[in-house]
Amino acid sequence: MLNVAELCALLAKQDDGSFVDSLLALRTILLLPSSSECHLNIRCCDQHSCFLTDRCLLRLLDASKRETLSSTQVHDIGRLLNSLVDTLRSLRISLSSAQKTSTLKYVWQYWDYPAEATRHQCIKLLESVLRLHLDDCVTCREARVDKSSAWCNWLVGVLETVVRSGEGLRSRYKALLCFATLTSPSTLTEKLGDDFPERLLLALNNRSVTVVVSELLCFLLSGASESQMRMWTTHLAAGLSSDCSWLRASLKERVIPLLFKNNSRMCISLLEEMSGELNNNPNNRTLDARLSIARLRLRFDKSSIESLSWNQLLDDDVMEDSLSHAEVELRLSAWHLLIDQPKLSQ
């Protein structure tokens, strides 16, 4: 019966393909040990102090670069890398910046892979590496406590890599959501630049990323500073009065209801601010947006004791103009608002 050290020595001599297969079969022994003491003493030879960092990590990354990998092999390597990084974190074993950067090369290589399971492994690995880094980096630990402190160059570099990736890449927005969760929404918004809110709203037009972009939007709004909230209000009001029907529908049917579910008070306040923003620029699209906001307010207000009525949200002349408007869509919006009005018996 081989002990762990002898087993590691044998594995280290295998080619990349056999190494991955063997490690996958033995992952519960090597990557998820029952005791950290056993794990820390794993050596594959006298030159390597840690089998995990000096052998496993390098061999897995080398294996991931092969051009002949099947989808199963790509996924298996991702699973092993995730197990490896999680184990390192649980044992408080650090990786150098170069090692973390090399590990993330798997993410950048496969995060747009056709298989959903592999893309999931990539985002999970990104999160694991970021958590490992945040546990170990003094600069980033200070930045998490003191919002005025700067994040380290390595973390900022990873974020810039994500931001520079393709706009239509679903994993890109999942990665940004991961960053927002681990750092802070307001910090992420600052790092992404002044044009990011507009670009994020435009991404809702891409139906393949609508769900994750909606989640990211709600998360950024939930942690926005006062000045950022004013900025978001302007952009959301513009989106709700956009000429793009898909963008308007995404905001009304997905983003705003999700925001209300997560933070009802903030959502109501945001709708009020958006309505005021739209009053300053009257036209057909803003009129439709105001009707939509009023409908949303009535829908969200059903849980309150004193129900709102439409004439508390809109002036009578606005409703009259809408009901007699030349555009069918506006007339329908006005009628929908009247239909949504709570009945006296309710």
Give me the count of strands: 0
Mean pLDDT across all amino acids: 79
Order of helices and strands: HHHHHHHHHHHHHHHHHHHH
Largest sheet geometry: none
- Count of alpha/pi helices: 20
The portion of residues forming beta strands comes to: under 5%
- End-to-end separation: 75 Å
- Which residues form runs of ≥5 with pLDDT under 50? 32-42
Organism: Plectus sambesii
Protein name: tRNA (32-2'-O)-methyltransferase regulator THADA-like TPR repeats region domain-containing protein
Domain tRNA (32-2'-O)-methyltransferase regulator THADA-like TPR repeats region: 229-346
Pfam family, one: TPR_Trm732
Which terms would index this structure?
71% helix; single chain; mainly alpha; THADA-like_TPR; tRNA (32-2'-O)-methyltransferase regulator THADA-like TPR repeats region domain-containing protein; tRNA_methyltransferase_THADA; 346 residues
